[in-house]
Every structure is written in structure tokens, then in C-alpha cells.
Amino acid sequence: MKFSFKKFKSFGRFSAMGLAVLVLLSSGAVSFRAEPAVQEAESSDGYSLVTQSEGVSLYASQDTGDFYLSDTSGRRWYSSPVGISEDPFSKASYKTQLRSLFYITYADLEEVASNGRKHTATSYEAIENGGVQTETTENGVRVTVNFSDIDITVPVTYALENGHLNFSVDAANIKEGKRYLLLSVDVLPAFSAADWNESGYMLVPDGSGALINYNNNTSESYDEYVYGDELSVEKETFSTVKENIRLPVFGSSGGKSPFFAVITDGAAAASVTAVSGNDECGYNTVSSRLNLRILTAKVMFSKSWTRQSAYRTSKRDSELKNYTVRYYPLSGEKTGYTEMASVYRKYLIDEKGLRRRNAEPSFNFDLIGAIDVKANFLGFTYYKPYALTTYKEALAITDELRKLGVEDMSVRYLGWGNDGLQNNKLPKSAKAMRVLGGNKDLKNMIKGLTDNNIKLYLDTDFLSFDKGTKNASKTVYNEVAYQDDYMYSVYASKLDATEKRLVTPAKASNYSERYLKSFLKYGCNISLSSLTNTVYSDFGQKNNCTRYRIPGLFSEILKQYSESKISVAGENANDYALPYLEKIFSVPVSCSGFRSENEEVPFYQLCLRGFIPMSVPTQERSDNPVKNYLKAVQTGCELLWTGIYEDAEVLSDTSQDSYFSTTYSYWADDAAEKYAEYMPLLKKIGNSTVSEFEYITENVSKTVFENGITVYVNFAETDYTAENGGTVPANGFVYY
Description:
Blueprint: E1 4-6, H1 16-24, H2 36-42, E2 48-53, E3 56-60, E4 67-71, E5 76-78, H3 92-98, E6 102-108, H4 112-115, E7 119-122, H5 123-128, E8 132-136, E9 140-147, E10 152-161, E11 164-169, E12 175-176, E13 180-187, E14 201-204, E15 210-213, E16 222-225, E17 249-253, E18 259-265, E19 270-275, E20 285-291, E21 295-300, E22 308-313, E23 323-329, H6 337-352, E24 363-368, E25 370-377, E26 380-387, H7 391-403, E27 409-414, H8 438-451, E28 455-459, E29 464-465, E30 486-487, E31 492-493, E32 501-502, H9 505-519, E33 525-527, H10 529-533, H11 550-562, E34 568-571, E35 583-585, E36 599-600, H12 603-608, H13 625-635, E37 640-643, H14 664-685, E38 690-695, E39 700-705, E40 710-714, E41 720-721, E42 727-728, E43 732-735
Parallel strand pairs: 24-27, 24-37, 27-28, 28-33, 33-34, 34-35
Antiparallel strand pairs: 1-8, 2-3, 3-4, 4-5, 6-7, 6-13, 8-9, 9-10, 10-11, 10-12, 11-23, 13-20, 14-15, 14-17, 15-36, 16-19, 17-18, 18-23, 19-20, 21-22, 25-26, 29-32, 30-31, 38-39, 39-40, 40-43, 41-42
Helix pairs in contact: 7-8, 9-11
């Protein structure tokens, strides 16, 4: 039987005796399930035992809903800092957030359209004003907070299960009035926050992974959408080159109470945030935010001096019922990001269907088939397909590489069919391109590669196209959400480039289902890169679909293809795609390098190594090919090149000039040398996971694989003497 109660301000925190009387008066209802002796011993600090699971206990305050976890060693993980009254740094606005189970951001409809102003309110302030109701659940507590002055009510629940805590925002039962719109909910903003005296770091899943040191005194915070920025929000310029979040996780290590967290429900609607201790905030915090609506600006009168902006919010997604974050308390001597990776990998195996692929390591390269080039007819400019690598030439390239000693190849062929790399329109069926040799040559190429044990992935894009507006995703202003091609040198879009459109997400399922039937006739594998790494919304009035639904929609497509007896590959893949992929091309090997970040780490690779074969980004297009190569060696990833048969000069004055260095003859010899040097190590490692990883120095890493192989990688310009006396050459590696 559940027991509900509201906060009684005149009582303050309940005493042990008061709690006992209250329980007796509840006609047999038990407020928190616990043995009386334990409950009485712990209730003197305002917390009572709720439940226990696998050596972890959950205690909660009946007054406020605040809680903490404890383990058998006595370590505690508090929902908000207990020593905040002693905080000499945090400003008042920060302190109320730090004291809160959550805080909200909202907009006033009477002003938001003209100025885009946002407001915040904290659960701590609402609770102080008596706006809280709590009740026990099966393994936890439900807390309903009423922000009475803005007529918004937000219910949250937390429960202890199998030694971890699940904290959920009950989005389906959020209530709003007519004037104020709820934009977001920041969940447990200071859970297990480390203070100004502690040493350690926070893990954020930026690209491959990044560490933010405690108390690094930077004024910049980390705040990024899971799966990348919203692509259906209009941008005038592209001001930042950055990595995306691929895994919805975060953590904290080194303090008194280390933890690791996974966003298990609603990740596509989330952001990950982190603040290192500084002059304005004394605590080191890493947490997540549920984004219920997106507020976007539209520039009005952009060609006049009266340049102004109008603002509009997106709709709430009625299908988003719960937003859940799972918190794992970490105990023992080792609680670093390598251990966090092990926890996450186990979660993927146990609950998401991740399985170990027993695949032999391979040499990987991308081939570019056809692109569009400018042409003229009677003074009119138009675009026509041009072959960079025909089907026959693809076979010729693999033959040349085999002569150089390269075996064990995997080929991903981009721009091989339909309209080539441009994807002028979404493919309804798999078709060979005449300019590349037609259907006969395509089948001959597939047979030739298969006969030589070369695995082929034909890449297909069901999301982006560049002609027409039918079924294109829209902005909140019901305008096509064009995807510009940006020049990173000046952060502006290319004027002569065709703007891409993104299909409304629901239509992707229609195209992919019809396409599969025609693709199976070729008898080879498929790469569905865009489905594995692209998340966006359609805010249009007709096909409204928020990004929250995308992982479910795209997972169904990936599942359908993976169950069709063909191998599916992805690129830089998000977590929802992992159970269906046999290979991941071009995984992230760096972080964004924000000022808030102190160190990049290979967290993505540590999670997946040994389960899904992965390659680093393409070697010949890397800003630093030596570092890119060593990043692969560091965690046992495969290498990748991008090749065309034609001379790269033909790419001048085309939208694909970024492939300028890809003529295969430019890199074939280097690839063969690295194949000979690195493949023996890859075969020794096999499908082993990483059991230990650390940076011995700033530039030297040590990796111990599951089967005992140890690899030292030296990114420095001078040799390094390892602990066993061996020499690790500059910009090189050794293994034992």
C-alpha cells in the first residue's frame, strides 16, 4: 500500500519518533520499506531507507524527495551536495540549481515570439514554497513538483533496481497552463557532484570521448545535443567544427563518489552538460537535459539595416512518455573511463542485443563511383553524371592492391547506383548506373570481388536528396530545412553548391522497404551510413516528427536489413544502430577540443572493440595521417582509405573537391606498407576486448587486450623507454 504525503514546513525534517508515529497513523501503510532498527538509525539526518539491491541502499527524504545511495563500504552518492552551505564559490543562482532534483527552462508566450527570452525555475525553490508531493513506489519514490506561479507541474520517479538507480521524468503527465511553455528539464544537475577540494575528471561522450578535469577553472561549460545538433533548425553560418555525441552516456571519476550514467529512454531528445569547478560554481557537475521543445529564431528583413529576429517553438512530442537516466554507482579501486566502458558494454549486451562478431580483420577502402559535374548546352548550364571509378575500374584497383601484397580487403562503394554520390532523388530500387558500366558490369564486379574473398558493401542513402521539396523535412516555420555545404575556412555556405534536403523520417521506411527487395538480387552487403549517424526532426505541419522517434524508426529499418541474410555496415554509428551492424567505418578518434575539455580518450572504441569491427577515418584525407594511424593501433581498429580511379584533377570546380587527394595510385604504396606492418598485430589481437588502457605520459599510451597482448603507442617526436625496458619509437608502436 502506498503512502502519500506533502511537505509540512512547520515540522522541518521529520525526527525518528515523528516518523514512527506517522507510520502508525497511516493504517498499516509503510512509508519506506525497511526494518525499524535500520530506519531509525538513518532517519536522524532526514533520510529513511527505501530499499536495497545488490549491496546498494537507497535512502530518501520524505520532506523534499532528495535521496542518496550508499554501499557496504559506506560510500554515498547524494542527489545534491550536502556541504553546499560551505561552498565559497557558487553564486546564488547556481546554488539553487545545485540543491535541486531538477530545474526547468520555460518560455512566456506573451513575450517569446518577439525576443526569444527563456526563464528557469528550480525544484528546490518550488519545494521551499510547499509545492511538492511524494509517495513511495515499488522500489523507489515518486516526486511531483508544482511550479505554482507558472502553472507547470513536473512528476519524476526514481527507483533502485539491480544495484543501479533509474531516474525518470514522467513526460506523459507533465501539466502546463495556457501562458507558459515548458522547454526543457535538467535532470539531477548535481548528482554526486565533486567539490572544490577533490581531484578527478568528468567523462563526456564528445566524439571518441573527452575528459573534463575537476576544478579546471574554465568559465565555459559543455552542453551538446545527443546525436548532434538539430538539423531542422535554420543556420545562417556554420561557426564551429565539432564532433557529435554518438553514445548517450556520461560519468564522473576520482572523487568521493564516482558514477557512470546511461540515458536509457529518450536519448534523442537529450543533451549532455558538464561544468567544471570555477569562480562562479564551486562544484564539478555532469548531467543531462530533456529537451521537450526547441526554440528557434528566424531572421527577418535580412537585407536591410533593420535586421530583426522572430522566434517560434516546436511542438511537444506526445509519444515521449518517459525520459530515463540510469546511474551506476562505481566502487572499488578502479573507477575510470575504462571501467565505465565495461559497464556500458555489458548494458549493450544484456539489454540492447549487442553481440560479438567473429570476423577476421580487414584492409578497408571506400570507392567513389559517379558524381555530378557542370556541363553546357547552347549556353545553358546543367549537371551530368561523371564516372570517377567504374565497376571495371573497381576490380582493377583491387587487383593492383593484391599485387602489392594486400589481402583481406573490405570495399565500401559510394555513388555506385541510382544518381551517384549526389543522390538527386531518393532511391526506390537498386539500379546500376550506365555511366559506370551498367548492370552487367556491376554483376561482374560483384562476382570478381566475391571470388577473391573481398567483402563488398554498396552504400545507400535513404535520407538526403537535392532535387524537389516533396517529402522534405521542414523547420518550425514550415519551410524546407535545407542542409548547406559549408566552407570551413570562412564558416559560410558554398554559393554554387546544391542544397540538400532531408526526407521526412516516416518516409524513409517506405523507401527502404521497397528498395530491399530489388537490392537482394545482387547478393552482396549494404552500407546504410546515413541511417546510423543522422538524427533530426521534421517540424512541418503535415508530417511533424521530432527527433525523439528517430532511433526507433531507423532501428526498425536496420533490423529489417540485418535479418535479410546480408551484412549491414554503418559509419560513425550512434548507439541505436549497434545491434544490427557487422562493421562500422570511420569511428570518431578525437573530441571537439572545446575549451572546457582537457583530454581526448578512445571511450567509443573501448566500449565496442572486440564486438564490432571498426575502422578509423579515411587515412589519406586526415589532417594528420600519422596520428590517425596510431589512433587505430591504440585500440586495435582497422585502417581506411578512400579511392578513385580517375586523376583527382577532374574534381576541380565540383562540389566534391574534398576528395582531391583520393586517386588510388597516390596512396596504394603507403597503404601496402601499413598493411604489412599492422595486419600481423591485428591478427594477434583477434576479437579481444580491451581490458586495460591508460596514458602513461601525455603522448604515450598502453593498451592491454583481453588475450594478453600489450601495445605501446608513442605520439611524441622522441623515442620512449617502456616499463619493460623496450623502446617505443617516435611516432610508432611496439607490442608484446
